[in-house]
Amino acid sequence: MTATATLAVAQPLIQSNSIVTLQAKNASAGTLQGSAKSLYISSVTAGIGFTVATANATNAAGTEQFLYTAINPV
After folding, report:
1. Cα gap 67→56, rounded to integer Å
2. What is the extent of the structural domain holding 49?
3. What is the Cα 39 distance to its own chain's centre?
4. To 5 degrees, how large is the angle CA 49–CA 34–CA 43?
5. How many domains are contained in the chain?
6. pLDDT (tens digit per residue) in 3-52
């Protein structure tokens, strides 16, 4: 995660009905997810990717690392 309140993730395999989940990869990410800044998927755009945002619209520290899983239902 960059030191911003939103981050666009490019993933051309995303579909409009994709289910995207995030998993903290380091302690900074775990701390973020346990705070008022917790990330959520704010938009999904088919063929482009998805955007994550902090819940309280304030910047992340910029040291958080996340893994994501995207499932495209049939």
Report:
1. 21
2. 6-71
3. 6
4. 20
5. 1
6. 999 999 999 999 999 999 999 999 999 999 999 999 999 999 999 999 99
Q: At 1, list the tokens.
A: 């995660």
In a domain, 48, yes or no: yes
21 lies in some domain = yes
Distance CA 43, CA 30 (A): 22
Render the chain in DSSP notation, one character per residue. --SSSEEEEE-TT--TT-EEEEEE-SHHHHHHHTSTT-EEEEEEETTTEEEEEETTS----S---EEEEEE---
Residue with tokens 């704010």: 42
**Residue at token pair 């705070």:** 35
